[in-house]
DNA sequence: ATGAAAGCGCTAACAC
DNA sequence: GTGTTAGCGCTTTCAT
């Protein structure tokens, strides 16, 4: 098969351990020896075998990321940035999509848990108990899920929602609707209502629905009937649905109704009118999630237990002054 | 650490090899023995260690997929479908994004080549020579890249483009433009022009440009100046750019100009008007690519060397009858 | 700073 | 059908 440490050792006139050290702890090897080994290794085309290395060392140099749906345009930029970040730590990123189905999540995790040094679980649907068991088996980071004792990255919509409320209030809106597509237990609706309340803005919550385009279509009708002048949608996809629904009903955006999305996916910049939305930085999420799982693996002393990533409003063309009352 | 074959063997009163066989070749083990081993294994919580298994067997049970850009909405559905398909073969899919940068591709491949049993390279930018070298080292499947001797999946736009040409001809169009964003050596423009020629339709090629939204904006202006009544764009993103460009110029779609995209990404169904586009089935691509690499790995006799996946036109609202000549 | 020896957990020959 | 033996390629004590 391939070239091994022994081949290199023999050809360089040193022991296998020295060759190994050259690749794992070069500072422990005398410069002259090191140079020779490196020269011979590259001449022979030696590449360390990660499998053998893992078996011996117990480390895989891989990180696992489990997400609900890679086809949701919110995730690809995060995956991309995490892959880059993982590589700066010398790790490979293993992405697993559990397809939004809870039953699949455990199976999906099972399929990669033995192949990675740590796991990042995005909005896991597993029970607290299962997660605690898992955390005992392998370093774990939870994103948007809280289980006491397990390191957590919290992606907070609060700053963006506050800015959205300020934005709408400044534009004179008073009657707002939130199209909710989260699980009720997430209390997203409650949190958002409270933020709007704090700005002196009323907010009617619709849903929960599924986070689909058609949901937006439907919600637009309801919102109109409700007399709302501003609509905050669960995400950009739903917001685009709202945009379509309003347009179909002959309602002008932003002349009569303003619309705000969440996530700032590529959809937001491409809709007509371009969508005002709440942006979550994929780089920030990726960097923090990656660093947190690496610190958890190494047991680094500087490891925070809870890291927060914020959000902010990206004003575009779908929001404008509230119409004068009839 | 964890439970090993030996622990199970001891507890079940059999040898380690028997335990191993229960998990790799159960039919070679007597039913009664097998049941007992399974019972003991599950009681002890035994999970085979894939690392050790790989080291010994030489197989990783993983497949690698290298793509140019996971943030391009064309890829996520394919990644998702390939992951599912790989799992039915008992494999894990390892996705690597090389970020469209040629220099990174080799590095990206390097990072995973030793961790997988086979590699699927999407539109590789590597030289023929490098690819041949790589194919010597590991089973390889090329998508949309031809190197004699290396198994290949060809995603053919021809059927969809033919249907597009028929569609436009039936609608009375005679003056068409293709916004090209492929590398010149791909000859995509030439192939498409020939297809349109065969339908008796002229086609002016613009570009090559970068496949960006702004390209569409720009191309719209050029196409109008050109007197074109139909525009075929490199992909949906560019087509949406064209849509915006035309709208901004006060040109009605499809009243004055018809627009066709390529890929049928989620953008196509969400634009206004909804985009007529050429669809490439992610499932078909994923299934064939996965099966082809698996057959290449196993050296299966039924292995085809060249597999084709077609495409078809999805008519939506962005195409209509050509306007009457002024 | 370097080498010798042991063994990570598993599977594959080979024996019986 | 099952056990014995050996060793995949590497890292890591421990010794020198």
Automatic annotation (TrEMBL), chains A, B:
GO MF annotation list: DNA-binding transcription factor activity; transcription cis-regulatory region binding
Cited Pfam families: LacI, Peripla_BP_3
Top-level taxon: Bacteria
Segments forming domain HTH lacI-type: 3-57
Start and end residues of each HTH crp-type domain: 1-44
Keyword Transcription regulation: yes
Gene3D superfamilies given in the database record: 3.40.50.2300, lambda repressor-like DNA-binding domains
InterPro entries linked: HTH_CRP (IPR012318), HTH_LacI (IPR000843), LacI/GalR-like_sensor (IPR046335), Lambda_DNA-bd_dom_sf (IPR010982), Peripla_BP_I (IPR028082)
Keywords associated with the record: DNA-binding, Repressor, Transcription, Transcription regulation
Protein name: LacI family transcriptional regulator
Organism: Kribbella amoyensis
């Amino acid at each position: 098969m391939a070239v091994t440490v022994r081949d290199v050792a023999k050809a360089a006139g040193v022991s296998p351990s020295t060759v190994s050290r050259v690749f794992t702890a070069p500072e422990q090897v005398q410069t002259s020896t090191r140079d020779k080994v490196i020269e011979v290794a590259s001449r022979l085309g030696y590449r360390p075998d990660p499998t053998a290395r893992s078996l011996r060392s117990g480390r895989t140099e891989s990180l696992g990321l489990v997400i609900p749906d890679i086809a949701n345009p919110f995730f690809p930029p995060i995956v991309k940035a995490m892959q880059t970040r993982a590589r700066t730590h010398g790790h490979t990123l293993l992405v697993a999509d559990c397809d939004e189905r809870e039953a699949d999540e455990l199976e999906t995790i099972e399929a990669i848990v033995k192949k990675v040094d740590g796991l990042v679980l995005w909005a896991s649907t597993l029970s607290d108990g299962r997660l605690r068991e898992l955390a005992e088996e392998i370093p774990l980071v939870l994103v948007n899920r809280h289980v006491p004792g397990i390191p957590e990255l919290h992606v907070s919509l609060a700053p963006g929602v506050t800015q959205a409320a300020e934005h709408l209030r400044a534009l004179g809106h008073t009657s707002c609707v939130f199209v909710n597509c989260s699980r009720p237990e997430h209390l997203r609706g409650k949190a958002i209502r409270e933020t709007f309340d704090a700005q002196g803005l009323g907010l009617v919550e619709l849903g929960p629905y599924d986070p689909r385009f058609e949901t937006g279509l439907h919600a637009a009708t309801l919102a109109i009937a409700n007399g709302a002048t501003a609509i905050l949608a669960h995400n950009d996809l739903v917001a685009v649905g709202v945009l379509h629904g309003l347009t179909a009903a002959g309602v002008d955006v932003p002349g009569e109704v303003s619309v705000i999305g969440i996530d700032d996916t590529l959809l937001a910049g491409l809709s007509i009118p371009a969508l005002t939305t709440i942006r979550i930085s994929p780089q920030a999420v990726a960097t923090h999630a990656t660093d947190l799982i690496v610190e958890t693996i190494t047991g680094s002393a500087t490891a925070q237990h809870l890291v927060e990533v914020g959000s902010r409003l990206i004003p575009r063309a779908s929001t404008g002054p509230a119409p004068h009352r009839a």
